[in-house]
Design goal:
Helix content: 55-70%
Strand content: 15-25%
Distance between the termini: 5 Å
Structural class: alpha+beta
Mean pLDDT: 85
Shape: globular
């Protein structure tokens, strides 16, 4: 079962709490490693570029999904034409 985890994060000179699933934190940290950015710096970049009508946590989730999707497409791992839904059901099983 997926667990939500609160973490206190620092953006510029303020601290706030962000609640993400463990898998979301791991994916976000993987992006930081790949881009050679500290979590604080990437969060500040996201804060600077997020849509004003979206909250930070929501935008972090969207950014993470979009980034990982782009990586999968670039690596040829996206199988959009495939009608086999096994991966979808496996993903649901893993996160629930």
């Amino acid at each position: 079962m997926t667990r939500l985890t609160n973490r206190v994060i620092s953006i510029y000179d303020r601290k706030t709490s962000m609640r993400l699933a463990l898998e979301e934190w791991m994916a976000f940290d993987d992006i930081c490693k790949r881009e050679r950015l500290k979590r604080k710096k990437l969060l500040e970049l996201i804060e600077d570029h997020k849509a004003p009508n979206l909250g930070l946590t929501c935008f972090v989730r969207l950014f993470t999904v979009a980034y990982m999707h782009k990586l999968a497409k670039m690596a040829g791992l996206s199988r959009c034409a495939n009608n086999d839904n096994k991966d979808v059901y496996q993903t649901f099983h893993e996160i629930s």
